[in-house]
Specification:
mainly alpha
Length: 88
């Protein structure tokens, strides 16, 4: 009697597990179909970070008076190497 009851209970649990597995995949497929593609992000029309930074540089280094950024980078490299020599 008890074996018959436990056997029926196990069959119900297995059937519910299989139905739950099927529902999981069916609902996952439906969710994937309903996914909305977001609109592309519009970038602001203002200048970027590097353009604003270059505008703040003095004209002799690379600001609006000229685009001599290599001179500014060479100056930065010289300063950093001097700090490196001072720490050694």
């Amino acid at each position: 009697m008890m074996d018959h009851f436990l056997n029926n209970l196990l069959q119900v649990v297995v059937i519910l597990d299989v139905l739950g597995l099927l529902a999981y995949f069916v609902l996952g497929a439906l969710k994937r179909q309903r996914k909305v593609v977001p609109a592309p992000i519009q970038l602001p029309a203002e200048p970027g970070f590097w353009a604003r930074l270059r505008d703040r540089l003095p004209a002799r280094i690379g600001g609006q008076g000229g685009e001599n950024l290599d001179a500014a980078l060479d100056n930065l490299k010289r300063v950093l190497y001097s700090y490196q020599q001072g720490l050694a």
